[in-house]
Amino acid sequence: LIQIGQPEHSVVTTCAYCGVGCAFKAEMRGQEVVRMVPWKDGKANRGHSCVKGRFAWGYAMHQDRILKPMIRDKVSDPWREVSWDEALSFTAQKLTHIRDTYGRRAIGGITSSRCTNEEAYLVQKLIRAGFGTNNVDTCARVCHSPTGYGLNQAFGTSAGTQDFDSVEDSDVILVIGANPTDGHPVFGSRMKKRLREGAKLIVLDPRRIDLVRSPHIKADFHLPLQPGTNVAVVTSMAHVIVTEGLVNEDYVRQFCDWEEFQDWAEFAADQRNSPEEVEKLSGVPAHLIRGAARLYATGGNAAIYYGLGVTEHSQGSTTVMAIANLAMATGNIGRRGVGVNPLRGQNNVQGSCDMGSFPHELPGYRHISDDATRATFEAMWGRPLDPEPGLRIPNMLDAAVDGTFKAIYIQGEDILQSDPDTRHVSAGLAAMDLVIVQDLFLNETARFAHVFLPGCTFLEKDGTFTNAERRIQLVRKVMAPKNGYADWEVTQLLANAMDMGWTYTHPSQVMDEIAALTPSFSGVSFARLDEMGSVQWPCNEANPEGVPIMHINGFARGKGKFVITEYVPTDERTGARFPLLLTTGRILSHYNVGAQTRRTANVAWHPEDRLELHPNDAELRGVRDGDWVRIDSRAGATTLRALITDRVAPGVVYTTFHHPDTQANVVTTDFSDWATNCPEFKVTAVQISRSNGP
Ligand code: SF4
Asked: Which parts of the chain are coiled coil (predicted)?
């Protein structure tokens, strides 16, 4: 931390890392940040922060930032620094040529969950109305797209049901595939406080996360399931609830489709879902499944919090729906202390999804094929829209390899490092005629780019983020953009280079347009957010103050839907060649692929990723703590140092992916969620051997 001097003024803004959405006061001296102080009136953090947020300003000042646009004809050419005018006209001419030569569906783009709502909205608008295609996707594809699908099926909304305050009324907390004290530290602390006050804790996780056993907290049940068996274990909990008469029938009859419930109950009660059968495939002792189910159903207000350990599986959407089934069957929805709560990884993953970043949905989760919805947007945007859903990220890459997809505009996303099957991503990018990257740093994806448009940080722009509890908060400009333009301005410049004629002068006007087009945002404006501090959508005429807790008197879709969640094992199998299962996660001091936190003071606390290996598996391979080890999978190989620990069960290994050297995604498979294509990052069969280093 470099103390520059005493602050002269301060600006309240919102952290750009995780989905908690902590509010900070940036204390300034001129155009330099002196320090970031958690804001006591922030409704998501109430004056608290974690070590990531406090030092986030470090990456804004980092020397690695690219501040001038760059272009090149071929990726083998050196970059050429050019003016914004030249970069934008080069890009627009190439895009126009590609559209005229190969058709509008040969172009697409990716919105960022790290950028503001207004920026995500403008990128998808440019792609739909400017490029004339629905080939738009978002980095949520690789994290919480199953949440969007699964919760929409069950409840009718693609969002968590509670506010963070709700945890204060929970008697039982069920954490599935999440590590809140590392991934969402400020909310993790609130959860710990409630646990210290006496709430019961159930953890479903292959790894012994800190919550399982930490000072003053011990999980009542830890179900250390084999990676890939979430659906079986959650459905087995449902089996216990149904067969032991623990269903809240009054709730189900009043709020859910009774016939669908009966079909589901019959399915859940089947012997194949019994704890004894599920023990054989999940490795979780039957008595733990029974105990956890009984506690969840009878322990009072029971809340579920889950993370990417649920979604990043071939059955990610199925697990989300299985979780929703549990909550509905026990009546744990629609009041404080209960609910189904996805812990969102990125600061604005909820918002980027809300803003129409999926190829089949316009803002507000309305299907592109709906004529009336399309007509509303066409009238506002003044351009015809394609009624056909576009391509998802993996399909864009497939089409590029096949030669039918030629150009991509990527805002704030490093798909080469964050998406599965790195070789496939490289092949797709290499096959394109035009790759446009808009980012802070020359990231890995930029190796394949022809245009680099410098991005700006959250400190250099106005806008809004929407956190994991649907809370829309203002992001306020703390300093002038070091690169000259905020990201939303760059998108507008590109749009206008393609004759779109946009005239926004401030992101508040973009939000006004979003509000005019999106019923769940119709009461949102910058003035309102400034006055209220924040608001949780839906915010409209019916809910002018927003909605902290959803589905109080029934579901957005009408009756809650029980979905039969048959367990289908992943195609990724262990065997003699690859006997161990690799799963991945995050650590407290780093954020995602580390592009930002590695450029802050946080890097000192976790300078490298390690492979966690159980002592038995280590001994079998002659590996000692700190040794270099090689990970081999069917997809590829990488090398890192070993950390011997019984946090992981025998047969399971674990690593983080915050450092590019680790290249964890080189070894992951190309299997993905059946409904959304979310990659199966959490299950890879591997072999580990000693190595001499990279
Ligand atoms: Fe808060 Fe998350 Fe930022 Fe930490 S990283 S300060 S928990 S928003």
From this structure: none
